[in-house]
């Protein structure tokens, strides 16, 4: 059964990745193009303002671009999105296998599709929502190249802290369910999760590197579409995985029914 769960996760990730890429290609890519156009206009303005550095700038623009913009926004982005979604699907399947092994054994009447739905919501919050809240995504041309390593490291730290804290919160909520009730247990676990995130946010550095004159509307639209894109990805991933689990359940019940009929 675990192999079927992994297969379902990979299939759900593949479908989610394709849908997510189509969404990004339609809505996010135009915002990226606007950001790149702003960056290029800034470079031209600097060239005109610093005539003494004109030769160096010419050398810079003489560099050969390995991959064209067309390849990057179509093939490159498509492959990257699908590979990322496949990885998320595999992690989703592993998380469901572990969670269902505990929930299904302790509360057999639980609908596995409800567990899938809860896992999708909690995964979205832990793996994307909270890290995005702490470090919102920015389009190209926003950010200092000198701090890219520190920014990437900080984003990775808050993501790991969020996912680990969410796992602990789920374990705590399940342990408290029979003692004080599901709602009270989830509330206590949720408060603990928020406290951990609040402390981590205070300890991590902040970055305010939007260049002067950068269109605020481009940043706003880019972030809105980035959130919507992740909502699309996680929703499709969860629904397809839940549909696959339903199919497995029906087949298992049918097989059990056939065995009973044959025994009679």
Automatic annotation (TrEMBL):
Cleaved signal peptide residues: none
Membrane-traversing stretches: 75-102, 114-135, 155-176, 183-204, 224-245
Keywords of this entry: Membrane, Transmembrane, Transmembrane helix
Pfam families given in the database record: CbtA (PF09490)
Name of the molecule in the record: Cobalt transporter
UniProt keyword annotation of RNA-binding present: no
InterPro entries: CbtA_put, MFS_trans_sf
């Amino acid at each position: 059964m675990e192999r079927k769960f992994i297969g379902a996760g990979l299939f759900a990730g593949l479908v989610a990745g394709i849908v997510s890429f189509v969404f990004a290609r339609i809505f996010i890519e135009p915002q990226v193009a606007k950001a790149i156009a702003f960056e290029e206009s800034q470079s031209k303005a600097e060239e005109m303002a610093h005539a003494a550095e004109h030769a160096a700038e010419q050398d810079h623009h003489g560099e050969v671009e390995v991959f064209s913009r067309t390849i990057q926004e179509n093939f490159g982005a498509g492959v990257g999105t699908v590979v990322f979604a496949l990885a998320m699907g595999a992690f989703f399947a592993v998380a469901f296998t572990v969670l269902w092994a505990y929930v299904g054994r302790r509360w057999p009447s639980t609908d596995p599709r409800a567990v899938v739905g809860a896992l999708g919501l909690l995964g979205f919050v832990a793996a994307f929502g909270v890290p995005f809240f702490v470090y919102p995504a920015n389009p190209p041309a926003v950010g200092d190249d000198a701090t890219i390593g520190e920014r990437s490291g900080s984003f990775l730290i808050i993501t790991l802290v969020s996912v680990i804290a969410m796992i602990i919160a789920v374990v705590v909520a399940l342990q408290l369910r029979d003692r004080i009730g599901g709602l009270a247990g989830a509330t206590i676990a949720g408060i603990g999760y928020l406290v951990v995130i609040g402390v981590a946010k205070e300890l991590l550095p902040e970055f305010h590197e939007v260049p002067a004159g950068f269109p605020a509307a481009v940043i706003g639209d880019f972030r809105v579409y980035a959130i919507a894109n992740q909502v699309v990805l996680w929703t499709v991933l969860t629904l397809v995985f839940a549909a696959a689990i339903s199919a497995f359940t029906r087949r298992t019940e049918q097989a059990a029914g056939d065995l009973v009929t044959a025994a009679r």
